[in-house]
Specification:
This protein is mostly helical and 195 residues long. The chain contains 9 helices and no strands. The protein folds into 2 domains: 91 residues, RNA polymerase sigma factor, region 2, helix turn helix motif (Rna Polymerase Sigma Factor, Chain: A), CATH 1.10.1740; 82 residues, Arc Repressor Mutant, subunit A (Orthogonal Bundle), CATH 1.10.10.10. 71% of the residues lie in helices and 0% in strands.
Length: 195
Amino acid sequence: MTEITDADLMLKVKVGDIKSFEILVGKHQRPLINYFFRVTWDRQAAEDMAQEVFIRIYNHAKDYEPQAKFTTYMYRVARNLWIDKMRHEGHAPKTVSLDAPVDSEGDTFHDVVSAEAPSPDARMDTNERAAIVRMAIETLPEEQKQVLLLAESKGMKYQEVAEVLGIPIGTVKSRMHAAMLKLKDVLSAKLGDLQ
């Protein structure tokens, strides 16, 4: 028996099959929320934007043509939504409450501190390193950050990243190279302080 692909499901959605859409949402909701969480560091905003992506996909299902993998199509919609949001809200950094979720699972600062886990010193070191990496990623220009997030956190091949971003594969490679060089510089300086 052949496995039903995401493209097959989307073609069923195109003709009005709600159950196929629910399957797609169930399969891709968490990765999409995690993608938005990594660009916003705000759990609620990430969930809202993921929901908006699925609304856009559903509303334009009649126009869907399986020219690329469904995930490529989905992340292209996500990227366009992110660009719209950035244009609308500007680039002002957002403050985050200490009661806000600190990870994509919804754990708060209190949950992290009170959990049975490594010693407070080990946890602090891990949290400091994570904060430094997050800060370093935030210093990247938006074009480099998008390439890095799609390739590294979503595991997309450079060709898929190129399709999502609508740029040549050579541009993806050069942006990734530039991002890695900048991260190496920032992280070696910052993480050296923790040694």
